[in-house]
Amino acid sequence: MNDASPLYPVLERIDANLDAALERLMDLLRIPSISTDPAHAEDCRRAAEWLVADLESFGVAASARATPGHPMVVGHGGEGPRRLVFYGHYDVQPVDPIELWHRDPFDPAIEETPEGKVIRARGASDDKGQLMTFVEAARAWVEVHGALPAAVTFHFEGEEESGSPSLVPFLEANADELRGDLALICDTGLFDNDTPAITTMLRGLLGEEVTISAADRDLHSGMYGGIARNPIHVLSRIIAALHDDEGRITVPGFYEGVSELPAAIREQWQALGFDARKFLGAVGLSEPAGERDRMPLEMIWSRPSCDVNGISGGYEGPGFKTVLPARASAKLSFRLVGEQDPHKIRRNFRAMVQGMLPADCTAEFADHGASPACQMPADDPAFEAARRALGAEWPKPAAFIGCGGSIPIAGYFQSILGMNSLLIGFGRDDDNIHSPNEKYHLSSFHRGARSWARVLHALSMEPR
Amino acid sequence: MNDASPLYPVLERIDANLDAALERLMDLLRIPSISTDPAHAEDCRRAAEWLVADLESFGVAASARATPGHPMVVGHGGEGPRRLVFYGHYDVQPVDPIELWHRDPFDPAIEETPEGKVIRARGASDDKGQLMTFVEAARAWVEVHGALPAAVTFHFEGEEESGSPSLVPFLEANADELRGDLALICDTGLFDNDTPAITTMLRGLLGEEVTISAADRDLHSGMYGGIARNPIHVLSRIIAALHDDEGRITVPGFYEGVSELPAAIREQWQALGFDARKFLGAVGLSEPAGERDRMPLEMIWSRPSCDVNGISGGYEGPGFKTVLPARASAKLSFRLVGEQDPHKIRRNFRAMVQGMLPADCTAEFADHGASPACQMPADDPAFEAARRALGAEWPKPAAFIGCGGSIPIAGYFQSILGMNSLLIGFGRDDDNIHSPNEKYHLSSFHRGARSWARVLHALSMEPR
Prior knowledge:
Chains A, B: One of its GO terms (molecular function) is peptidase activity. The structure is a homodimer. Chain A has 15 helices and 18 strands. Chain A is an alpha+beta fold. Strand 11 (305-314) of chain A pairs antiparallel with strand 11 (305-314) of chain B, so a sheet runs across the interface.
């Protein structure tokens, strides 16, 4: 970049107008747009209208679109051969337990902390603060150059924290309007405080519940112990058999569609200097417990996993009861990667369980959802351009990383609109999203806006 | 027995006075002596006093002895070289759910059923009806012969259904008074409607709770799945390892002290014609699930067992939550036989668990009690005499049988007083003890009293 670059004055503008940008964010944070609570439906509507007005204030033609739930905000601005779609969400999590907050969650303030200034409020990080980093970058482009550097569709959802019930129908009904060449999503985090990241691998999720039944009633373990089948024992044997001694999952065909990491990504991950001991140490653990032959970042980003999330059976209260229970159940989740087929894995898991049942036992299954893994084309030049642009803003180079959890919107954009997503965010692990005392670092907000200005510039320069 | 036997007129007396005996039982059943409910403390006291008065009515010197809980009734009557101690309990279980009773549980009545007449009331079987079988036999002896055929101590407890908190201190404080040559306990059942039984093998019980902890907090299975240790998996592996493929328990040293069944007992058990398919079929099972090389009655009476009675960990509510839990726990019970040492087994179990823990896991244990198995000397001539006496009353010969559960009083009599027990009872499996609509067959009551008259006679004839 040289002084003649159109980016430079945009970055200067963002710096000069930071206080005004913060005031705008504070305004939005004051609206308690808790989507899951019907009592806050009106607040969700207000937040949507606030965003419409803010987009229109710098020339984006925007409106709040009714859904069976909370409104979607959609706006269009700019021109150019590449059409970008920015997604964020304006709804926030509930604030309970409210007594653990040290201030009103909807009375935002800048606070000094040992790690620098933070914006303290519900939604400061997830996702109002993140969403506004892009809006401020877009505003600065318009204010400096009179226009956005590309055609940009703004799409803000108001139900992300309550399961997005209206999202899929809305995407399907408005596919042509909402489809672009590439989505930009700001709802993820930095790799660490100095290292930005583009999330290109998101694990899928398969949820299963299995209930093993034996006798048709609870039995007395004195009268029947030693002769009656105990479903807790049967369930335990099944769970124990799900992993082999190397930590590999034993469901037949489970690893079909799991690829090895590309060399370029492996190098980036190694360069991140991920400290597994520190990562695990923060939660009281010391040793990676996954597949023995995998590096820790693979375990959580690019390898599939299987965990029992809950188990239940017999007497669980205080004290003791000599019951021999009629049933026992477990909730399990499989995190999926690459091309793993969740439906095939569900079938194979169920067949494996059925095959392990002894006489007199039956298994019932409940389907708790299935979404395949989501993989972005890190080798697409636009992705590499965005990665370099991000690296120019932050102390350390940006990396393409994985995400152990799911980000459903990225999957919907792929499956419904055929659109990949650049997942870039500036949250920190300790932002307390979904918890009391949520905060967003001022540096995340400021550098975040500058980062988007750079990414917009890079993408506008990149031939489509 | 010939007509000159002193037993004959006693049996006739029992037959002739059955209606009066039933009236007495009804009187006792009308007192709602629910020991676990403090609101019924006065009723427990009334029941104790009713029994004192009833014993005194036929010349037994009796009194209600205060304890920190409900009173113990103790009475002494008769003379002879052999001193017998009869034990029963006058307290009853609560009646909830009361709406499932078809009549007031404390308004007893004789009802006609397809299986004959029954006495319907809470406590009809457990244990007021059973207790009174002995009292009526004793009364008949006194009324016919002016005296009991042996020295008999009557010992009625009022806290059996609420954990017997006062029992051990009372036995210890009154050991000389309460100790006899042999205890008679009427709180068990028939083998089947035609076959009386003397329970000579009672399994012991070892209660353990183990909690496996890994991370110091619940984790998100997306972020940590594949790298963090899951304590549910660890616990499942431990439980799965407790039995081998032959159904044997793998705790080191577990079978030390377990003997093979004596040939005479094995023959009696084979003669019982126990139908395991029917026994299991009644609760929706079909195949014995215990040690492969054992006959079904061994599995429940003379072989030790291990059951998980409850398991708990992670999210157990409706729906799904992708938590990777910090801990998981299980309550386990071991049923013990022969000379198995519960304390050694507890130590070995805990060491086995500790030895199976992977890195970052800890195990905490809770002690839920330990009592060794209780074995009566079936080869003692008094036991054989009682068995023959019982067989003379019922359609089929009596058998020495086992009991899968524990009967703590028999253990206390052995350990505190050095006294064995003849466990003889006339309950049926479907008496609904501890449940709504409890009943006791009139034939159990009538033949029960006649049975005790015979046993008293047999024991008084048997040289000490």
